[in-house]
Amino acid sequence: MYTLRLPRLNVQVPVKPGETVLSAICRAGMTYTYGCRRGGCGVCRATVRAGSTSYEGKVIAESALSGEDRAAGVVLTCRACPTSDVTVEFAPESKVRMTVPMAFSMASTTISTSPADRA
Q1: Average per-residue pLDDT in the chain?
Q2: In the sheet that 74-76 helps form, which strands lie side by side, from edge to edge?
Q3: What whole-number distance in Å separates Cα of residue 33 and Cα of residue 113?
Q4: Which residues, at least 6 apart from 85, have a Cβ–Cβ distance to it below 8 Å?
Q5: pLDDT band at 110 (very low <50, low <70, confident <90, very high)
Q6: Are 78 and 20 contacting, i.e. CB atoms less than 8 angstroms apart?
Q7: In 1-119, which ranges are continuous DSSP H helix?
Q8: What SS3 state is found at 85?
Q9: How many CA atoms lie within 13 A of 105 on its CB side?
Q10: Which one of 34, 59, 83, 87 has the fewest beta carbons within 10 angstroms of its own beta carbon?
Q11: How big is the CA angle at 12 (ends 7 and 97), to the nearest 5 degrees?
Q12: How many structural domains comprise the chain?
């Protein structure tokens, strides 16, 4: 499991294996401006300041994310899956905000899936 850091909000969110940045943020009780969720519109753009992400074979429209954008660390959060601990910065117009504070506290709790821990 990796950690997603949102420095402007001073928030850290655990990210499940294969989970996108967008899914992790929404699971944590937060939201921001996004569109199609399929890598075609570019509305969910953010900049990776530290760490790495992968699209894991998912299609990204060139019109939504150019090669120049990729070189600058810009990702589409609806498709980008962290491959390490990652720090992501959103533009102010993305309006990242807490919508369900109780969900954030639940998402921040590590729950063991090991059979030995459940015995």
Answers
A1: 85
A2: 11-15, 2-6, 86-89, 45-50, 74-76
A3: 32
A4: 2, 3, 4, 5, 50, 51
A5: very low
A6: yes
A7: 21-27, 67-71, 101-107, 115-118
A8: coil
A9: 2
A10: 59
A11: 65
A12: 1
At residue 51, the 3 state secondary structure works out as: coil
What is the average per-residue pLDDT within 83-96? 91
> Contact, 45 vs 76, CB < 8 A?
yes
Which residues does residue 50 pair with via DSSP β-bridges, in sequence order? 87
Residue 118: DSSP 8-state: H
**CATH code for the domain in which residue 89 is found:** 3.10.20.30
Residue-wise pLDDT for 93-106, tens only, equals 888 887 776 555 55
Using only C-alpha atoms, the chain has a radius of gyration, in whole angstroms, of 15
Domain extent for 23:
2-98
- CA gap 32, 22 in Å, rounded: 9
Question: Residue 3 to residues 24, 38, 80: CA-CA distances in angstroms?
Answer: 10, 23, 14
Determine, yes or no, domain membership for 90: yes
